[in-house]
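In this notebook, the sequence line spells out the residues, with the fold written below as integer tokens. This is how one looks.
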Amino acid sequence: MKNLDRIRDFTFKEDDVVVVSFPKTGTTWLQEIIYCILHGVDESLSQSLEDRFPYLEFIYPGLDSIQRMEGQRLIKTHLPYSLLPQEDILKKNVKIFYIMRNPKDVAVSYYHFVRMMTISNYSGSFDNFFEDFMSDKVPFGPIWKHYQEMWDHKNDQNILILFYEDLQKDINGSIRKIAGFLNRNLTEKEIGEIANHCSFDNMSQNPNVNYQHWDALGIRKSSEAKFMRKGQVGDWKNYFNAEMSHSMDLWIENNFRDISVSFAYEN
């Protein structure tokens, strides 16, 4: 709570770039793409993503690191729009990137994440987690409200909403779109280099972005799935039975009715 009060008092700068997201929607992927657009692939290999693109909610290397950063700051947060210093965002025209992903795949990815993290101490089955997810009992939830709050600002000139499935379908086009929002002109060669660097295979092997160091810190259970597990669209089919799928379809229809989005559930 104390740190949340500090976040409310946090002051943005004119050229800040912020990635806002619900957990497990493609945050790390988007962060690395943005960093490479602004600084180049080679520079991204020099230090961990946590240091290059700090997490606002964390004491370290988050809020404290951000406040010490010089030049343009890249910031990550899972906080919903309502908990961010909105007046500051509007006044300073901070560039906000928001990424959405279909809720079924989010639920599966989130399940593996909480099982992986020692701090969550979660050992339940996917059936258990599914019920928690549908009951809005997961951190930073409910997902529909998180999405809705940013969707209400989709026409703000300083906000760009992206979709995980679009990045999967057309990574080059997505990089071009992101670069345009950042007022950066990239050559086709540069776009190709970033796309290759940010492919799932390469990122999953890159210790600067795959949070491999969490093992040594005791944050991750090495017996569970890796931080970067599959990076697919449609993995939910391996976990949902027909009843679950139908139940979530109705839940989405009821809770996401004010978000005019048709989520893609398979490639």
In short: The mean pLDDT is 87. The beta strands are 17-21, 74-77, 95-100, 159-163.
